Structure formats: C-alpha cells, structure tokens
Amino acid sequence: MKLVRITKPLRAVQVRVMLAGDLNANLECYAQYYEHVHGDTVDTRALIPEILRAFLDGDREFQLWSRSAESQPPHVVNPASSNGGAKVQP
After folding, report:
1. Is residue 27 part of a domain?
2. Of 18, 48, 55, 61, which is most buried, counting CB atoms within 10 Å of its CB?
C-alpha cells in the first residue's frame, strides 16, 4: 500500500523559558534580520518554534538516531524496585 498509516498530530504544548539577556538581544536582532530579508515584521516569540524546528531538522546526527530509535522496541520504566532503583524493561 502506498498510503502510510494516518496518525493523529501531536498536541501542542506551551513552554515557558527564560532567556539570558544576550540571547534575547540576539533573538531580537534575528527578528530584524528576518524583516530585512522577508519584508515582514515578526514577533520574537513566533521565531522560537521555527528556529527550534530548523535546528532539529538540520541536525543530521539527531535524525539518524531518531530513525534508528524508531525501529527499536520501546523501553518501559517500572516504578522503583525494592532496592530503591528504577528498572528499565524492553
């Protein structure tokens, strides 16, 4: 079959993050650069998910690991065992 299994999209989550002053300044500068290139103003908060997506999509080692991890059986973490440690089972 050429059609792949239809999956539900993952739900969006809100993430709050504190940026160091220099990182925030660079993000604001990047927003100005975006406006210079595309002619559209953009809120820095809208840039963050796109920058993160571009970073993850461009990380070849992560993509390779992610594809290999998908073919591995999932690991289940059991509650702490009697010796006080968590137990991982395939």
Report:
1. yes
2. 48
Q: What total of structural domains would you count in the chain?
A: 1
In a domain, 49, yes or no: yes
Q: Report the distance separating Cα 35 and Cα 43, nearest Å.
A: 10
Tell me the pTM: 0.63
> What are the b/e assignments for 23-53, b being 16+ CB within 10 Å?
eeeeeeeebeebeeeeeeeeebeeeeeeeee
CB within 8 Å of 80: residues ≥ 6 apart? 86, 87
pLDDT tens readout for residues 28-87 = 999 999 999 999 999 999 999 999 999 999 999 999 998 887 767 666 566 555 455 555
